[in-house]
Amino acid sequence: MAEMAANGEEPEVLFWVGCAGSFDDRYKRVTRAFVQILEHVGVKYAVLGTEESCTGDPAKRAGNEFLFQMQALTNIEVLNGYNIKTIVTACPHCFNTIKNEYPDLGGNYEVIHHSTFLQQLINEGKVHVKGGEAFKGQRITYHDSCYLGRANDIYEAPRDVLAALDADLVEMKRVRANGLCCGAGGAQMFKEPEPGNKDINIERTEEALATLGAGNGVIATACPFCMVMMNDGVKNKEQEESVKVFDIAELIAQAEGLSK
Amino acid sequence: MIGLENIIFLIVAAIGIGLFVWQIRKIRKNVLMGRDLELADNTSERINKTLLVAFGQQKMFKRMLPAVLHLFVYVGFLVINIEVLEILIDGIFGTHRILGFAGILYSGLMAINEILAALVIVACAIFLWRRNVTHVPRLWNGVEMRAWPKLDANLILITEIVLMLALFAFNISDLKLAQLRGAHIAGAFPISSLFVNALGSDPETLHVIGRVGWWFHILGILAFMNYLPSSKHFHIIMAFPNVYYSKLLPKGKFTTNPAITHEIKAMLDPSYQPPAPEVDAEGNPVIQRFGAKDVEDLTWKQLMDSYTCTECGRCTSVCPANMTGKLLSPRKIVMDTRDRMEEKGEHPAIFAPNHYKEMGVERVEVTEEKTLLRGYITPEELWACTSCNACVEACPVNIDQLSTIMDLRRFLVLEESAAPASLNAMFTNIENNGAPWAFSPADRFNWADELYVPSKN
Fold this sequence. Notes:
Radius of gyration of chain A: 18 Å
Strand order of the largest sheet of chain A: 2-1-3-4
Number of domains of chain B: 2
Keywords (chain A): 4Fe-4S, Iron, Iron-sulfur, Metal-binding, Oxidoreductase
Pfam family, one (chain A): CCG
Largest interface: A-B, 68 and 68 residues
Oligomer: heterodimer
CATH topology of the largest domain in chain A: Rossmann fold
Number of strands of chain A: 8
Protein name (chain A): CoB--CoM heterodisulfide reductase
Structural class of chain B: mainly alpha
Number of domains of chain A: 2
Distance between the termini of chain B: 106 Å
CATH architecture of the largest domain in chain A: 3-Layer(aba) Sandwich
Strand content of chain A: 5-15%
Order of helices and strands of chain B: HHHHHHHHHHHHHHHHHHHH
Organism (chain A): Pontibacter actiniarum
GO molecular function (chain A): 4 iron, 4 sulfur cluster binding; metal ion binding; oxidoreductase activity
Helix content of chain A: 40-55%
Shape of chain A: globular
Helix content of chain B: 55-70%
Shape of chain B: elongated
Radius of gyration of chain B: 28 Å
Largest sheet of chain A: 4 strands, parallel
């Protein structure tokens, strides 16, 4: 971004990578897949790189309003400094925080989650999903992210994106507004769960595996936390050979022949 | 013709209504213990929401069987109230079926009334069955489902059945008397007419049964009205204002504390002038807690939520923490808030059934500290929440359980620094590295290295 600004240019969209997209080895693959799509369709985009910092979401959900606002006000200063208008992000937690909580602190942007962004690209014919038939017969089930779904009413965009794949989409018992949390929201990602009978991600993974049935299948997610939790659940159930967890951006990039 | 009966009726009705107003004032006082919150915006959106969710029962229909049964009782309640109006007029002025002049309209009303009354009896009987025989888990399980909540629910259902039976006794005897006299009677009675032969033919007895039915029905209604403020059944009144004042923002948007914003802005920019601190009537600065420790730190809407709760447990049954055996139960958070509020303020009635804590039954382990936090709700419950909003989504009367959980969490973190150690580590990482994990901010762009390897060569 700094480079672009030095050249006096402004991006069409700022891609907010997020901490998971920057540091989590698994989720870095999603970041790269999404960037490949952005390059493929020729969108003029930028990233903040090392100038990006945590949105403050985990601090806020954990109750640390002070630290959250500290992060938010600093980030807003950077974003406003570059005159950013449109932000796209693959993380529902970043999406929710920047879209809903930054305006109170002086950060007003059009914020788009990558599922909605991809849906638009497909609708506009910019992404053709040429290799969509590669998914023919594959069973895919989509796991709703709470911060995309209930928190912001985005249920259809990720499903529409998956529908472009020509795969066999199956729905779990608890979906959309009744979806079951992966267990990582509200800063749970960063602590051990409270004592109970079972971990939440195991409960959810069992439901996903029951839906996919025997044989190969894909659990599609649209959130870095959901991805970690579902992956852990699949490993716990020793199904990692047959059931894969992918972000919707990775599936599109694969179908478009952008990545293997 | 106004006689002694009418004068007695007038006195009884005045006492009943007066007592109800007295109780409502106490509830209002309790709710106003909460912090101020401006919710007078977006009137049309609020009215729409009230029509859909409160009048239209929209969110009830997430579960079909109870929704349909509840609809019978709810519509029954609304329509039978028109007859209660007639009963009041008849009672005061000694008239008999005063609305009878409306002819066919009255017949229709009476017929609908009777059918609804019968459906109310059927629905309440099934509800009793679900609670006491099949033990629907959400109505039965949970530390918060103590003796009183269970008794309360049964009392309501039995009372409703008895009230409907009294209505039928009145109608059947009226109908039979008219038949014996060969007289015309205003109204149509599809259910009562099936039972006219069940009462015998002595006009004296019939008259007495009719009067007993009539008096029982209206006394029952007056008594029931005064029972409401101490009961979960208070939702039949509170559901409407509570839905009207519900959150219109996206569920993911949590409140922002402006006091903290001023503090940080002053830290970041020494020339920043924060507004003068709020002062109370005596000119002393108002010291506000960060987050909520007790009921007066919550907003009046959060307190109103707890008077609206009907303890149906839909929130708890969809809570991911609760279903995996953790201590958190969103319903308990709401019920605890109500109980603590009544402990601190006033109980609406002369007796205090909601203080089930004082009924000698142990609840979850709490310390002696007499505040909502720790005295009722433990940190362990609060830390189990994933903030997924499933409870908020499930609540048929738009209670925001999550906002209360978050405010209590904020107190733990901001005032007591009592977060679990791993969360404190996460806070430190964000402060030092700008990420919740211990990675160097300089490595933030490393994901791109691999991507651009070909072009770098």
